[in-house]
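Input/output pair, single chain:
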Amino acid sequence: MPFVFALAAQGAGFALYEFSARTVGMGGSVMANDAEPASLAANPALITQLDGTQIQFGATAVLPQATTTITHPLLGPMSRDLEKKTFILPNFYLTHKINDRFSLGLGAFTRFGLAGAYENPSTWAAAAGEAYKVSLTSYSFTPTLAFKASDEVSLAAAAEIMYLDFSENPLLPSPPFPMAFNTKISGTGWSLGGNFALSYKPAWAEKWGFGLTYKTKMDQDLNGSVSTNPAPSAPFIGMGVPPSGNARGKVTLPDSIAAGLSFRPSQKLLLEGGITGTFWSSYDAIRIYYKNMPLVITDPKNYSDAVRLNLGGEYKLNKAWAVRAGYVYDGSPVNPNHMDTIVPVDDRHIFSAGLGYTTGVWGVDAAYAYLAGKDLTGTTNSGLPISYTNGKSHFLALSFKYAFK
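Output:
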């Protein structure tokens, strides 16, 4: 039965990388160069560069668009667009330099998330059993300790405490059913992971820098409920209508490793390229266990490991102003044999630009990015032909920072 505790977004799989406006503007190429408090999300080892106590906060607005087409065995191809809505990804960072060796930090940001609903789902007979509306809020809290081991090397370790709050509405079949069933799946959960990072700026190659991070898996145990109205009888449960009851969901969010290499050809120009590998193969299925009855629902995903490549640059016009640009190739882990309605886009190309202003004490950054998704054709878990087309998103990011020196 293909309804799920679904997780999705317009990043690879359902990962997000919009940690700050500078990060967005440079296409995520902030692993190995100049630090900002938002480095707590990208590469926390960089915060040893920051003096005193510094604070940064902001948000990214995301405007996704996509079309999903499922071929009904009798009615033929049936398409629906995502509703046009704007979703906000907030972030907050605080760093404090204890002494020349140690720095502390606390980050709050979104690393996995989703939101979306399809237009006119009640007439979308081809999508019976699939989700037509999903909302998930994910917050990662990362208390961090960074250590400057030498003039060249900094290290960091952070605990990642992640909170998930979600709800989902599956589109239940109507014909040949004599009645309509309204179902909502909801739940919350906490999980614990870690983030380990390195920053290397060699004295023998002063123009170069290197950054490396590893983020652990997050095993999520989610407690919630399934609510179906009116309550279905046994025959309808057998035909795919879920009964009401308390339930728990289990899903493993993948670990990842990322590296960045920066080069500063002049005092004004900074360039960086990077790669992120996410081990999505651990995301094999989502399982729902009812607490008050011997019923388990499994939704196969069988994702593949994915690679994200990024290239970005920053040019300082003067001491106050900087312009930025970036490009990202974001590989998708979606299995064409297990496609659903919630991640309606394949590989992504992201083009970005940004602008920054600083007085040395306070600063503001702004950025825009455009995501173009590749079309994809495959089948659902129930074997119906499905395709994703017109996948695209607009990102608008704004950040503010202040240094208490």
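Confidence is low (pLDDT under 50) at residues 1-11. The two ends are 58 Å apart (CA to CA).
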